[in-house]
């Protein structure tokens, strides 16, 4: 993917990390902790890429570009603040090794 330009980062998102805590009854419950709020570019993967991915584990429906924050992995999700859509992180990587942005491959939760 080409470098994301600031003008294309039109989606205000919240990056969240899953945390586990005990509720009042002593049961483990998942909770989401906000890690950062920032602008991102969210775009669907092409039908061809989707077909190639579906043959492998961890199907990806969207690619998300954002500025580098903290290391992001499969215990994270991205919430589009405007639409409320939720994307579970499948993979995240630093494409040019400069630590200025992160590319996330994600699966939209429907």
Features:
Thrombin, subunit H
Report what the structure shows.
There is one protein chain. The chain has a 6-stranded antiparallel β-barrel with strand order 1-2-3-6-5-4. Strand 1 and strand 2 (28-44) form a beta hairpin. The model has no long low-confidence stretch (mean pLDDT 84). Helix content is 7%, strand content 52%. The chain is globular, with a radius of gyration of 15 Å. It has 1 helix and 6 strands, in the order E-E-H-E-E-E-E. It has one domain (7-19, 28-109): Thrombin, subunit H, CATH 2.40.10. The chain has one helix at 47-54, and strands at residues 11-22, 28-44, 62-67, 76-80, 86-93, 101-109. The two termini are 25 Å apart. It has 110 residues and is mainly beta.
How many structural domains in the coordinates?
1
Second rung of CATH, namely the architecture: Beta Barrel
- The sequence of SSEs as H and E is EEHEEEE
**Range of strand content:** over 45%
Cα shape: globular
Average pLDDT level: 84
Parts with pLDDT < 50 across at least 5 consecutive residues:
none
The rounded Rg comes to: 15 Å
Q: For the largest beta sheet, what order do the strands appear in spatially?
A: 1-2-3-6-5-4
Overview in brief:
The chain is mainly beta and 110 residues long. It has one helix at 47-54; strands at 11-22, 28-44, 62-67, 76-80, 86-93, 101-109.
Topology:
Blueprint (H helix, E strand, L loop, with lengths): L10 E12 L5 E17 L2 H8 L7 E6 L8 E5 L5 E8 L7 E9 L1
């Amino acid at each position: 993917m080409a470098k994301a330009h600031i003008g294309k980062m039109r989606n205000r998102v919240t990056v969240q990390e899953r945390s586990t805590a005990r509720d009042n009854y002593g049961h483990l419950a998942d909770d989401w902790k906000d890690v950062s709020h920032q602008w991102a570019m969210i775009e669907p993967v092409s039908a061809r890429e989707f077909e190639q991915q579906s043959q492998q584990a961890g199907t990806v429906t969207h690619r998300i570009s954002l500025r580098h924050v903290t290391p992001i992995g499969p215990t994270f999700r991205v919430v589009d603040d405007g639409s409320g859509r939720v994307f579970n992180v499948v993979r995240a990587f630093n494409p040019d090794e400069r630590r200025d942005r992160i590319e996330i491959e994600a699966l939209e939760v429907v």
